[in-house]
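We emphasize that the prediction below concerns an isolated chain of 164 residues; any contacts that depend on oligomerization or on bound cofactors are therefore not represented. The input was used exactly as deposited, without trimming of termini.
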Amino acid sequence: MRRARLASVLAVGGSMSNNEVSVLSEDASLSGRITGQDLTVLGGFEGEITVRGRLRIGPQAKVNAKVKADSVELEGQFDGEIRAKSLSVAPSAHARGLFLADRLAIREGAVVEGAFNLAMESDARPEAKPEPATMVVAPVAVPADATMMVPPPAAEAAPVAKSA
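Result of the prediction step, given as a token string:
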């Protein structure tokens, strides 16, 4: 991918109240920090993304970033950290990193490696690091329109007192 000037690769909506989405084009590569409302990344990006709304990482995208967003739809290649209220991983996705979310959906065919922590509160973006757990999702015999929902971890059992 080529490096390009920001103005030529990022189409930014004028008024975010009109549900306009900023788009990083497929033939572009950008590094740095992006903050805004809704964003679709179709090309390459490295850095930090903070979105008050929906972040979509397209099927041809290659992203290495620390992400904070309300909702993330991951379809392409991702390496880094995602903190979101809702994270959806498509069959075309290859993801590696730390994933913190209230809701997590991983579709059949997605390849995901990393640490997961489903938040117990509505803000899925705490700064504390979760206990690492590795999970790789490989294709299984599940209908194409099925969604895998991972339940939150169960509460720890209270210690049992020993009798003398």
